[in-house]
Amino acid sequence: MSQIISPSVLSCDFANIQRDVEMINNSTADWFHVDVMDGVFVPNISFGFPVISAIKKHATKPLDVHLMIANPDQYIEAFKKAGADWLTVHYEACTHLHRTIQVIKANGMKAGVALNPHTSVEVLEDILPELDLVLIMSVNPGFGGQKFIPHALKRVARLKELINKTGSSALIEVDGGVNLETGKQLLEAGADALVAGSFVFNSPDPTQTIQDLKAL
Ligand SMILES: O=C(CO)[C@@H](O)[C@H](O)COP(=O)(O)O
Ligand SMILES: [Fe+2]
């Protein structure tokens, strides 16, 4: 199976959101990466339910929703209603992570857990068989366009070993500073899915850039 490419709509032109959604529809991208930031868990605010619903209305591919919010439990059902297919919460934002995962799945979504750059992948060992996805942050969350933190490569390799050891079928997704160079290294380390925001949307031909990432 080739890698999953999930362009981050955080970097799209919000005045032309339908155009950018159609671009992703017509590209070789697999998912839409949708970053939700609340100004509490991360020092930035992105967008909420009306924007996600608007994206869902036009998207022909699954929405991969990355919640950078405190108390995500409060909103799980609402994200399902807005159109999330994959819902990823941060380990650092959840006190009862196991319960949160069960509730996401009970609401008919795939369940993911994101790890900040400082959080050891080993903290997920015991619940890996329950997870559909682990999102390794290769930048500190909150902003697009940041520089890739190289230790993400070792983290992906360690997580891959744990996934194999526990018999989990979780996908490894990586988010932050992904381009052709870091993307290639991440795939070699064991990543299954790459998120790319500024690299796609700041390029002269986003459709081709998505294709280039898909062809790595
Ligand atoms: O979750 C985040 C940032 O917190 C990301 O999904 C960004 O949207 C990725 O942007 P680039 O680093 O690819 O520009
Ligand atoms: Fe993200």
From TrEMBL:
Its cofactor is Zn(2+); Mn(2+); Co(2+); a divalent metal cation. Substrate binds at S8, H66, G142, F143, G144, G145, D175, G176, G177, G197, S198. Binds 1 divalent metal cation per subunit. The lineage of its organism: Bacteria, Pseudomonadati, Bacteroidota, Flavobacteriia, Flavobacteriales. Pathway: Carbohydrate degradation. The gene is rpe. The keyword Zinc applies. One of its GO terms (molecular function) is D-ribulose-phosphate 3-epimerase activity. A divalent metal cation binds at H33, D35, H66, D175. It holds the Pfam family Ribul_P_3_epim. This is Ribulose-phosphate 3-epimerase. One of its GO terms (biological process) is pentose catabolic process. It catalyses: D-ribulose 5-phosphate = D-xylulose 5-phosphate. One of its GO terms (cellular component) is cytoplasm. The keyword Metal-binding applies. Belongs to the ribulose-phosphate 3-epimerase family. Keywords: Carbohydrate metabolism, Cobalt, Isomerase, Manganese, Metal-binding, Zinc. Catalyzes the reversible epimerization of D-ribulose 5-phosphate to D-xylulose 5-phosphate. The active site is at D35, D175. Its EC number is 5.1.3.1.
